[in-house]
C-alpha cells in the first residue's frame, strides 16, 4: 500500500510564539556529545503550545483529561471545510458550514482551513484571525461531532470561554494551531492528532498529519 503524508504541525523551537499569558517555549541544550557522549535537550512549554489538542478538562473541572480521551476520537477519517475566503477578524458562522452539513454528523472529525497559520510569527496570528461564533459552536455541539480542528490558535479570541465550554462540554476534542491544510488537496482524508499521554491534565502538543491515498 502506498500513501502520502502531509505534515500539519507547527515547529517547536526556543522562543516559539505563544499567547502572552502562556508559559514561554524553551528548548535548551542539556547535554552534548562533547560533555557526556550524547545530545539531550530540556523542553519547557505549555500543554497548548503550537499544534495541540484541548481536552474537556481545559475549561471544565469535571471534564475528561487528556489521558482519558479515546484515541478513536483523535484519529480517523476527516472532512476539510474550505474557509480560505474568510478575512481577518471575520466571523465563521453556521452558513459557512452548511454546504458540508450532510457529512457533519455524530462522531465526525471536521477540520477547517483559513490559511491563517501563514501569519506566523507575526503577533496578529493570536488576535486577528477569522473566528468561530457561539452559534456555530452550538450547532456543532448539537450534531455531536467528535473533533473540530483549525489552522488558527483558538476558535475565538474574545468569546473563548463560552465557545470552548460549548464544544468541550459536548466532549468534542478541539485541535488548534494546524498548518499546511492547503497541501491536502482533498475534501476527505485520514487525520491523526494523537496527544501526549499527560496524566490528569488539560491538553497536549500533537504531531498532526494527514494520510492520503489509503
UniProtKB/TrEMBL annotation:
SUPFAM superfamilies to which the protein is assigned, alphabetical: Putative cyclase (SSF102198)
Pfam assignment, any one: Cyclase
The name this protein goes by in its record: Cyclase family protein
Originating organism: Paenibacillus glycinis
Amino acid at each position: 500500500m502506498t500513501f502520502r503524508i502531509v505534515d500539519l504541525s507547527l515547529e517547536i523551537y526556543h522562543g516559539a510564539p505563544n499567547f502572552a499569558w502562556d508559559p514561554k517555549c524553551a528548548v535548551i541544550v542539556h547535554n552534548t556529545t562533547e560533555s557526556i557522549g550524547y545530545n539531550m535537550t530540556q523542553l519547557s512549554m505549555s500543554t497548548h503550545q503550537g499544534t495541540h489538542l484541548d481536552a474537556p478538562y481545559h475549561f471544565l473541572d469535571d471534564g475528561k483529561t487528556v489521558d482519558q480521551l479515546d484515541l478513536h476520537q483523535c484519529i480517523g477519517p476527516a472532512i476539510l471545510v474550505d474557509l480560505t475566503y474568510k478575512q481577518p477578524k471575520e466571523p465563521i458562522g453556521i452558513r459557512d458550514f452548511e454546504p458540508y452539513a450532510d457529512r457533519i454528523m455524530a462522531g465526525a472529525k471536521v477540520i477547517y482551513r483559513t490559511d491563517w497559520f501563514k501569519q506566523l510569527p507575526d503577533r496578529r496570528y493570536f488576535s486577528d484571525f477569522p473566528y468561530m461564533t457561539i452559534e456555530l459552536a452550538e450547532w456543532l455541539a448539537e450534531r455531536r461531532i467528535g473533533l473540530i480542528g483549525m489552522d488558527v490558535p483558538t476558535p475565538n479570541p474574545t468569546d473563548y470561554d463560552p465557545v470552548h465550554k460549548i464544544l468541550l462540554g459536548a466532549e468534542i476534542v478541539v485541535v488548534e494551531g494546524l498548518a499546511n491544510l492547503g497541501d491536502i488537496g482533498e475534501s476527505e482524508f485520514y487525520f491523526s492528532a494523537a496527544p501526549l499521554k499527560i496524566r490528569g491534565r488539560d491538553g497536549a502538543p500533537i504531531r498532526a498529519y494527514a494520510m492520503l491515498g489509503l
